[in-house]
Design brief:
The protein is mainly β. 2% of the residues lie in helices and 42% in strands. The chain has a single domain, classed as Beta-galactosidase, Chain A, domain 5, CATH 2.70.98.10. The chain has a 9-stranded antiparallel sheet with strand order 7-8-9-10-24-20-19-14-17, with no helix packed on it. Strands 4, 12, 13, 15, 16, 18, 21 and 22 form an 8-stranded antiparallel sheet that branches. Strands 1-2-3 form a 3-stranded antiparallel sheet, with no helix packed on it. It comes from Anaerocolumna jejuensis DSM 15929. This is Galactose mutarotase.
């Protein structure tokens, strides 16, 4: 397993071939780190890519053309070795291709290219999913970067905030113990009001696991220090995203996760083709999306 570095006068980025994972965002001058360190006592990952599914499948399986397949939560890409295919002064690209191993659990030939570009204090993450097969391909993809929170040792996480590019109250879908979206017609939707446009990160915010925010409510999320200054901003065009920290662990990080897809609902009875928020690409076509991480 090899590591790779992109560096400019502002930031130094470190990557691994394993999962094509961004493993560190470090201020070049001060040495301050912004990403989680993968301490397994809380969570052993840092910023995995979620592919070819996001979240959990109902009953850990899906149906396609009359056959049943199983996939682990968030798919397999995060646990596979990518190849570094291109490296320039300000960018690098990784490639994962389908194999006999992947075709057993996901019957679509594909190429997945992950490209990282560094521009001053912004990291651009681009996904390209290429359908190299002959049939329409169905998939989801998402990011899962974990940012230190608190960012300063003297601070408490409960004094930090999220801010968004809209001050409208947040309509949240919550997940069950099985990692599925809870849909109960007798229950009103969960609404999280903002305080002066901010969502406090109190100690109970993630007691029920991830917060799933659907329907293009926001396209930019920032983490703010106790004095309400942003130190990380994640911007995206994705129609939904997740906010997460390990349940009831008081973990010193939070995740801001742009998604093109999500876990199944508790009442889902469809096939791979009909999964909510899923994507499809015809043979020979390319699906390309990106998001950015800006520091400070």
């Amino acid at each position: 397993m090899s590591s790779h570095i992109l560096k400019n006068e502002e930031l130094t980025l470190t990557f691994s071939d394993a999962g094509a994972e961004l493993q560190a965002i470090t201020d070049t001058k001060s040495g301050k780190e912004y990403l989680w360190n993968a301490d397994p006592a809380y969570w052993k990952r840092i910023s995995p890519v979620l592919f070819p599914i996001v979240g959990n499948l109902k009953n850990k399986s899906y149906s396609y053309q009359g056959k049943t397949y199983s996939l682990p939560q968030h798919g397999f890409a995060r646990d596979m070795e990518f190849s570094l295919t291109e490296k320039n002064a300000d960018s690098l690209s990784f490639l994962l291709e389908s194999s006999e191993e992947t075709l057993k659990v996901y019957p679509f030939p594909f190429q997945l290219i992950i490209r990282y570009t560094l521009n001053e204090r912004t990291v651009n993450v681009t996904w390209e999913v290429i359908n190299t097969g002959e049939d329409t391909m169905y998939f989801s993809i998402g990011g899962h970067p974990a940012f230190l929170c608190p960012i300063n040792d003297k601070d408490k996480q409960s004094d930090y905030y999220f801010s968004f590019d809209s001050k409208a109250p947040i309509k949240v879908s919550k997940v069950s113990e099985n990692g599925l979206i809870i849909k109960d017609a007798s229950q009103p939707p969960v609404i999280l009001p903002l305080e002066d446009g901010l969502l406090p990160i109190d100690s109970h915010l993630f007691d029920d696991d991830a917060l799933v925010i659907e329907n293009n409510q926001y396209h930019s999320v920032s983490l703010l220090t106790p004095d309400r200054k942003p130190y990380v901003t994640v911007s995206f065009d994705a129609p939904l995203f997740g906010l997460w920290s390990p349940v009831k662990k008081n973990a010193p990080f939070v995740c801001i996760e742009p998604w093109y897809g999500r876990c199944d609902s508790e009442d889902f009875k469809g096939t791979l083709e009909t999964r909510e928020w899923g994507n499809e690409i015809e043979a020979g076509k390319i699906f390309q999306k990106s998001y950015t991480i800006t520091i400070g």
